[in-house]
Prior knowledge:
The protein has helices at residues 10-21, 36-45, 53-63, 69-74, 77-87, 91-109, 113-116, 121-131, 136-145, 156-164, 176-188, 195-211, 229-233. The chain is mainly alpha-helical. The chain has two domains: 36-145, Orthogonal Bundle (Endonuclease III, domain 1); 153-230, Helix-hairpin-Helix base-excision DNA repair enzymes (C-terminal) (Endonuclease Iii, domain 2).
Amino acid sequence: MPAAKQTPRLPKLIEALIKQYEVEGKSVVLTDLTDPFLLGAWFILGQHAKRNGQNRAYEALRRAKGITPGQLLDLPPEKLLTICQTAGPYEDARSKDLYAFADDIEDKCGQDFSQVFKKSAAEIRKFLEVDLKRSRAFTDFLLLYGGRQPIFPVDLPVARAATRLGYGKMRSEKEFEKAYKDIQKALESESSKEPDWLIRAHSALHRHGQETCITHPLCDKCSVAKDCPYLKKNPLPPKLPTAPTSSTPFAKPLQ
């Protein structure tokens, strides 16, 4: 008799994470952007960004009207550097990468970068990874959010949360690129192919890895702790008893 097929864990985990982060009317989705160039700029601004720094920096870029390749290239270096500082450290590297990205797009696409995303996923991937020399993480992010392709992007926060939940293996953050495909394959094996679901799932895991499942995880604040293999192997230390207060009666002394 064949073994019963196990129900995938991932949809249940994602549902719990969405409930954790979709509070007070806030959406779990990281960004509503769909324009590929703006998504690329948003992704670059998020590299090594502080919490909420990515969105603040993008808003500053939008106010500065650097929202097309040509407009971004026209921004004075000191202005773009100030915008990148809003996101967090490594502003110089982030600024240089934004200029390089805008220059490549203007050189190879003009103002028609979005036309690339009307091609097949394989053609889009070739353009981004080969012609523009962009990373797989960058490419997959644009393929899902900008191209509506059924792909689960993996960034460092996603990788950190996913591997602790049992999807792929990454012993340290230095192994991110090496572990990328295995983590992605494990996630996609239990994922819907619907882009809207994938965007919410990616956003939920990203936020979890950025806000709760951090380098030193806040397991006591985790909504999926009871289903986490990492926590089973690394249980929280027992809580110390709280000291009695003036309103708490002391225990009766032993006779």
